Amino acid sequence: MWYDKTIDEVLKELKTSRQGLSQTEAIKRLQKYGPNEIVKPKKVSPLLILLNQFRDIFVIILIIAMILSVFFGERADALAIALIVILNAVIGFVQEYKAEKSMEALKKYLSLKAKVIRNGEIIEIDAKELVPGDIVILEEGVKIPADGRLIEANELKVNEAVLTGESVPISKTARVIKKVVRIPEMKNMVFAGTFVTRGRGLFVVTSTGRLTEIGKIAKATQEIKDVEPPLKIKLKRFAKKLAYAIIAIVAIIFLIETIRAVQTNGLTLTSLVRFFMISVALAVSAVPEGLPAVVTISLSLGAREMAKRNVLVRKLASVETLGSVDVLCVDKTGTLTKGEMTVRKIFVNGKVIDVSGVGYEPKGEFKYRNRVYFGPDLKFILTAGALASNARLAYDDGKYKIIGDTTEGALVVAAKKANLDYSKFPRLKEFPFSSERKMMSTINVYNNRKFMFTKGAFEVVIEKCSKVYKDGRTYPLTEKEKKRLTEINDKFAKNALRVLAIAYKEIKKDEKEDNLVFLGLVGIIDPPRDGVKKAFQRCLRAGVKTVMITGDHKLTAEAIAKEIGILNGGKVLTGKEVEKMSDEELEKVVDEVCVFSRILPIQKLRIVKALKKKGHVVAMTGDGVNDAPALKSADIGIAVGSGTDVAKEASDMILLDDNYVSIVKAIEKGREIYSNIRKFAFFLMRSNFDEVFLIGTFAVLGMPLPLTAPMILWQNLVTDGGPALALSVDPPTEDLMAKPPRPLNEGILHGRMAQILVSFLSQYFSSLIVFLIGMSMAGLATARTMVFVQATLRELVVVWNCRSEKKGIFRLNPLTNPYLIVAVAISALATVLLTTYSPLMALFQTTPLTLKQWSISLAFALSGVLIVPELFYNKEIKHLKILLKKMFKEV
To answer: How far apart are CA 122 and CA 19, in angstroms?
Structure first.
């Protein structure tokens, strides 16, 4: 590494000098090393996004069924299936294409300007033209364009949160470091993507583009394969098992019909084609072709709802995956906290004053012993702190920001909260801060007199003081008083507050920084966001464990974790401790850890992998480049809107408002969507197979089929259409956040197999009995019409018992889902028209029914209301348990 080499050694190795490279040499190196930019991942073309919609096994089954239907003349079935397939593809394509368009693929992270020295002259160039060996000038507010070794550092401070997660700016030096250190301790190095908060500097470029630390992380992120969502895995497995079952049914029926024809010497090519067409019709009727479309529509509608809640969904299946999450790995800075230093406590005149408000917005109160306080001592210390600072508070693009050092910014914001106008006290002189002095002083005209105001590290400032401020007067600073002040400072520090001591003196003649009057202490921290505590409690109640992963110091991380409630009996591990562990050792303890501090990017990835190996569904939130590999590896990665483009590119979702509360809302919405997927999956499964067995029974017996192809098609459209779609937007019937996350291996139809079986048998025998009654009353056409009416209307009755796992139609208010009321009403009316309107009767081969025939069909249809969930949920049918497990293990 470069940090352990002297400046001369670095310059020599890079074949450069303080005068910089020549323009000719720079051009040669640009050709050799390439532009200083991160290589983007290839964009997914719209065509590929569209083609990907047809890779699902469910869709493949439907396409095969559609082709066979066309081949054997079942054009109505083929048209219906084609419409479903196209609808599914269009919805999926539109959603994914919009998500890709709404966030650009890995932007030019290094596309900015840089001041460099070339041929001994200072020039400004595009940062992508930087090459190793270039000498770059750093100034306050500048984003660092490449990795490099510092040559000069004048009070230089750099915010490296984007890379390390450390929210406090790091003081930099040009001195050599003769020991092995990690990135956060490389004080003589600067890194691309970080920015200067204070001071000036000069560095020689050592790495550009993909070889920078940011570039390495971006490359590692691109190499991580996307994690397949749990829902997609379950649907694939289910589709595969369903395909096997359908093929088996088709084969058995075809074989039986063929054997019977051989036995009766009636086997001909025509009969073989007829047998095969019957088998294909059965297969088509068995496939719940509406399931993939309704799943896609449900996820798409959920994504739209989440957008209203400030969550941009980049991958559609992520909407559902959120509902499975049981571990939420959270980056502290920018997610749990504002990422903005804030004054939390002030000690002055013997009082510890609490300061409310979060971040840089100048809103908050000052309280002493739980009462609002705004005495002259508080005004004095706030004014002194602001005057001894160079930071400025600015308002830009709808939000407040600090120009300059963020710690000084906290002092300025505190003064603004008190509506103090410190600008009326002009500065005459400044004694700048330095890492050696650890203090800063200014001389200002204050109330028509000259005063020195000083801020700095407690141990430095206290030694410069000879007096202490009390009740508007000054008293000698005794050893006893020093000890008391030291204890208060230590108490602040133990609470992870960054402590600054404030002092002053009136200038008579002497302008030296001594004989100061100790004024007080200011405790600063990057505090939790508003609403985070409540959001955490909701996650806790929902069985979602929150794990803080941060680059901050252990004490800082512990303090924030305790304040939120995350650290409640759990362990805290540091990056160094994790580094010493093997993957197996980390896996053993990972469940016990609530806070990881001083963590490096590769360690975040290890933590996520360890949690996943323990069977957890892991979500990872983050904003920095350092979070990207873990975001990509997690089951669901959530980047914050203000984060880096690298993090966003690796994520499945983006928090547009950077608000942790939005994560909880998204988890709740994810659970709601999965609950609705269970509802309509249950409805479709219990509605499809009775047709197969009913038609199969009569086919095997050699009797006329009880339903025609158009009738079967209509029933499929009714069950797979409006009512199923209405279930996809059904409001929650239970408190979803009061339940623990569902187990990863829990099927979509978990707990509902008994009800499916009872519903299927009930429908099967109802249709069988109605058909036999119809045959005895008026012949085949009437019997088919009675079965058709009974079976279709029964589905429209049963759907009301699909809205809840444990509550039936008699315990739920039907008015809470007006979409279902409308869908059922339209479907019922259309079904009646099919048996009363002549053109439709001809198309569907139905006949008019008498009042008695209608009564029989309606009576059997309404009996479906009795199959209520509370009687059957989670009930086992022992004799069929093994068979059901084999058939429906994944669903």
So the answer is: 9
Alpha helices in 268-355 (DSSP H): 269-286, 290-308, 318-321
Coil, helix or strand at residue 704 = coil
Rounded to whole angstroms, how far apart are CA atoms 632 and 647? 9
Which of 58, 246, 243, 65 is closest to 693 using CA atoms?
A: 246
* Distance from C-alpha of 549 to C-alpha of 598, rounded to nearest angstrom: 8
In this structure, what token pair is assigned to residue 304? 């739209």
Sequence letter at residue 575:
G
Question: Which long-range contacts link 882-889 to residues 24+ away (Cβ below 8 Å)?
Answer: 884/753, 884/757, 887/241, 887/245, 888/238, 888/241, 888/747, 888/749, 888/753, 889/237, 889/241, 889/747
Tell me 309's DSSP state: T
> 319 vs 121, which has greater pLDDT?
121
Amino acid code (one letter) for 437: R
Question: Nearest 10 degrees: CA dihedral of 645, 647, 649, 655?
Answer: -90
Q: Tell me which of 17 and 744 has the higher pLDDT.
A: 17
Beta-bridged to residue 366, according to DSSP, are: 355
Helical ranges in 72-167 per DSSP H: 75-102, 161-164
pLDDT tens for each residue of 428-479 = 999 988 767 889 999 999 989 999 999 999 999 999 999 999 998 999 999 9
- Look up 331 and say whether it is catalytic: yes
At residue 103, the pLDDT reads 38
Q: pLDDT digit string (tens) for 323-358?
A: 788 999 887 877 788 778 899 999 999 999 999 987
Q: Virtual CA dihedral for 117, 119, 124, 128, nearest 10 degrees?
A: -80
| pLDDT at 297 > cutoff 80 | no
Assign 3-state DSSP to the chain and report helix, strand, coil percentages, each to 5. 50, 20, 30
Which residue reads 């850890």 in tokens? Answer: 593
Q: 552: closest CA among 387, 713, 336, 716?
A: 336
| In the predicted structure, residue 101 carries a pLDDT above the cut 70 | no
- What tens digit of pLDDT does each residue of 63-89 get? 776 776 677 665 655 675 676 567 667
Integer Cα distance of 839 and 815 in angstroms: 34
Q: What pLDDT score was predicted for residue 92?
A: 59
Q: What is the pLDDT of residue 333?
A: 74
- In contact, 326 and 614? CB cutoff 8 Å: no
Task: Provide mean pLDDT across the span 416-435.
Answer: 89
pLDDT of residue 888: 44
Question: For residue 577, what are the contacts with CB-CB under 8 A and spacing of at least 6?
Answer: none
Phi, psi of 881 (to 5 degrees): -60, -50
Q: Which of 326, 331, 623, 635 is catalytic?
A: 331
DSSP per-residue codes, 739-780: SPPPPTT--TTTT-HHHHHHHHHHHHHHHHHHHHHHHHHH-H
Q: At what angle do helices 780-798 and 709-720 cross, to 10 degrees?
A: 10
Lowest mean pLDDT among 104-113, 320-329, 548-557: 104-113
Q: Can you name the residues that pair with 401 across neighbouring β-strands?
A: 394
What is d(CA 190, CA 12) in angstroms, rounded to the nearest whole number?
19
